[in-house]
């Protein structure tokens, strides 16, 4: 199997400050790097108004990260992100599909 390119976007709790948000992002990206994947610098958009309320919250911290890894590693990343109460929503898109 070969590595695929992915883009992860997640929305985290708006109460997290920038340092906590970066720590959370780095913690989850270690899931990729520990399995030999590559992670680009995260693009932290910060607090934004949500299109609709999620868990009684009107705002969320948006983070976008591009990375490459094996499909099973990306599936595990998605699984562990969904277990964290500080992560409101996740979306992982495979970028190298034609």
Automatic annotation (TrEMBL):
Pfam families: Ribosomal_S6. Keywords: Ribonucleoprotein, Ribosomal protein, RNA-binding, rRNA-binding. GO terms for biological process: translation. GO terms for molecular function: small ribosomal subunit rRNA binding; structural constituent of ribosome. PANTHER family: MITOCHONDRIAL 28S RIBOSOMAL PROTEIN S6, SMALL RIBOSOMAL SUBUNIT PROTEIN BS6M. Belongs to the bacterial ribosomal protein bS6 family. Binds together with bS18 to 16S ribosomal RNA. This is Small ribosomal subunit protein bS6. It comes from Bifidobacterium bombi DSM 19703. The gene is rpsF.
